[in-house]
Task: structure prediction
Amino acid sequence: MARYDAANTGYNPTASAPSTGIVKDWMFPVEGNTHAAPVVGENTVYAGAGEALYAIEKKNSHQHWKRELGYHVGVFSPVITQDLIFVAGRHEEKGKLFALDREFGEIQWSISTGKPESPIVWDRTVYLAETTTNGSQIRAFSFDGSQKWQTSVAEEYRNSLSSHLAVSSGNIFVSVTCESRENADNSKFVRTSKFDIETGQEQWVSQTKGQTSTSPAVASGQVFVADQTGLLRSLDEETGEEQWRFDTGYSIQSSPAIAHDVVYTGTYTGEFYAIDCKTGDELWRTSIDVAYTDAAITDETVVVGDGPIYGLSAIDGTTKWVHDETGFSTTNYSPVLSDDAVFVGLCVKADPEDMYDNSIIKLIEPA
Result:
């Protein structure tokens, strides 16, 4: 999965990111914007761009296949299983969930949805959060496409999703932005909910003022939620009770990432933080160009950045390396770590009048 696991931690314990420097190993051009993290299998990189899903050889960027789906899949990260790939697609306010075989990219089935987010897979079940004309909901599907259950999210409020689910310990966690259907001032708040994974029954709810565009992350009995008021909050996984909150002072745009009892997040101003999971105390902070994207973590390195990509020490936040594509405007999306390499979708505009050139790139340690 794009965040490595269904709990959205972003931590890959088997990867070893470049440490002393970084160079581009290959660049694979794609047609259409790629606005989501790729997913890396044992030998293949899977990435959406525009309305197509690509399978690319991990070692040398050879294209195995390309499947046109007719829906914009470039904003969603796919999920891979042993034999199948699941990816969401969007067209205006409607969408589809696709299942494809991994070897050839042939469509096995597709299901119409509302406005979807990236799917999550857990125990041979696909979970999808979507926004419909009636509000947000979660649906659970078997691998053959049959629906197991669906449940509404915050149905008593006007609400919208802009993040995907997290799954941990037999439960689903989701955050939505809500506003009262009756309240004239339309004040918004973030509502985080826990649902039973087998039945879809809501277990608890936690609310705070603000809006969110980030996904919750779960580790060590804690659910971490960030919002656009600048708050990072820790909730008890069992009860939903708030344990602590950390105020960055600026809108948080990157979903929390977690490793070794440290939670990492960044703001739109470029401040990037490491926070003690148990106490909520700041361990370190550093300034990077922009911290819109979700971080990827190894035991020693945090990889993050929108534009320049930074490799930071997980211990103290010092910069190990920076990769920056030349151009008038450069945007990249959440990096993914596999083995000793970094994979990321990239959009580069060489001149203000140019269209973006889109690609998937692989970054490695210099020889």
About this structure: The longest strand covers residues 171-180.
